[in-house]
Amino acid sequence: MRRIGVTGAAGRMGRTVIETAGDREDVAVVFAVDATDEEKVADKPIHEPDDVAALLATHEPDAIVDFSVPEATVAFADACAEAGVALVTGTTGFEDDQLDSLKSASEDVAVLKAANFARGIQALLATVRAAAGALPGYDVELTETHHNKKQDAPSGTAKTLLEALAEEREEDFEEVYGREGIDPREAGEIGVHVRRAGDVRGEHELMFAGNDEVLTLSHRAEDRGVFAAGALDAAVWLADRDPGLYTFGDVIEG
Ligand SMILES: NC(=O)C1=CN([C@@H]2O[C@H](COP(=O)(O)OP(=O)(O)OC[C@H]3O[C@@H](n4cnc5c(N)ncnc54)[C@H](OP(=O)(O)O)[C@@H]3O)[C@@H](O)[C@H]2O)C=CC1
Ligand SMILES: O=C(O)C1=N[C@H](C(=O)O)C[C@H](O)C1
């Protein structure tokens, strides 16, 4: 049984992590932290972000599972590094200096950062890499859709998909965000399109078009439970790892 602290616990994902953990026998939530005024989520008392160092010392968790906001994640990573506790974070929207801070923390403890904990996204990444290699010169357009409360755009997953394309595609490309007016597509562009509506959990679609054919690759998360389950799997996997920066792909590969 792995002991888990949850940060961002009162958010959409934090609540789902607590609920999902409650249905599992391999993890137990030993504390919950959020900036909210709410006193409890499920049966877990909510502690203030400033209490994290004390909570780590008192409860000695195996890992923190974090879905919060970038500046908070950086503070939690520093506290984890100080306490020798592994960190799993699904937070997205980091600036470069914040990513550097996570990298620094990973010199002291195991840190796993993933923009998407759905296993289907790992399969999509592998398929996108294969398509990018097999279809040189094809036009590529990426569309992502999320709920109307999402803060960052494009999504962390969209950025990860673009990184995978950049690694595999022979030609350099430039990302173009939406189009308007007289603005014809130029060779080497990848159009990135962001939609925000309702409570869509998360949809990503890549279109490869050329040679009189179109290949469409897409993934749709149907419930936040898929992200929570992946993050908890990652925490169980990460608990005994050496310091370093890990990906969800590392968990899937075993
Ligand atoms: N990797 C993945 O698979 C997934 C990643 N995400 C990412 O996870 C993050 C959270 O998403 P979601 O749950 O929808 O967002 P929410 O806004 O619902 O949740 C974030 C929570 O973090 C809290 N928070 C803000 N500041 C702090 C702080 N300093 N310390 C502790 N908690 C704090 C917020 O409180 P308050 O509202 O009071 O400010 C809120 O309760 C986003 O970056 C999102 O993109 C989401 C789904 C899946
Ligand atoms: O904010 C969300 O909801 C999601 N965020 C992640 C991202 O930015 O890629 C993953 C998922 O699609 C849901």
Automatic annotation (TrEMBL):
GO CC annotation: cytoplasm
Complexes and interactors: Homotetramer.
PANTHER family, per database record: 4-HYDROXY-TETRAHYDRODIPICOLINATE REDUCTASE 1, CHLOROPLASTIC-RELATED, DIHYDRODIPICOLINATE REDUCTASE
Membrane-spanning intervals of the chain: none
The organism's taxonomic lineage, starting at the top: Archaea, Methanobacteriati, Methanobacteriota, Stenosarchaea group, Halobacteria
Metabolic or biological pathway: Amino-acid biosynthesis; L-lysine biosynthesis via DAP pathway; (S)-tetrahydrodipicolinate from L-aspartate: step 4/4
Enzyme type, top EC level: oxidoreductase
Binding locations of NAD(+): G8, A9, A10, G11, R12, M13, D43, G90, T91, T92, A114, A115, N116, F117
Domain Dihydrodipicolinate reductase N-terminal: 3-117
Domain Dihydrodipicolinate reductase C-terminal, first and last residues per copy: 120-252
The reaction(s) this protein catalyses: (S)-2,3,4,5-tetrahydrodipicolinate + NADP(+) + H2O = (2S,4S)-4-hydroxy-2,3,4,5-tetrahydrodipicolinate + NADPH + H(+); (S)-2,3,4,5-tetrahydrodipicolinate + NAD(+) + H2O = (2S,4S)-4-hydroxy-2,3,4,5-tetrahydrodipicolinate + NADH + H(+)
Coarse class of the protein's main subcellular location: cytoplasm
NCBIfam families: dapB (TIGR00036)
Role: Catalyzes the conversion of 4-hydroxy-tetrahydrodipicolinate (HTPA) to tetrahydrodipicolinate.
Record: active site: H146, K150
Subcellular localization, as worded in the UniProt entry: Cytoplasm
Gene this chain is encoded by: dapB
Binding site for (S)-2,3,4,5-tetrahydrodipicolinate: H147, G156, T157
Family recorded in the similarity comment: Belongs to the DapB family.
Protein name: 4-hydroxy-tetrahydrodipicolinate reductase
Entry keyword set: Amino-acid biosynthesis, Cytoplasm, Diaminopimelate biosynthesis, Lysine biosynthesis, NAD, NADP, Oxidoreductase
Catalytic activity, EC: 1.17.1.8
Binding site for NADP(+): K44
Record-linked Pfam families: DapB_C (PF05173), DapB_N (PF01113)
GO annotation (BP), single: diaminopimelate biosynthetic process
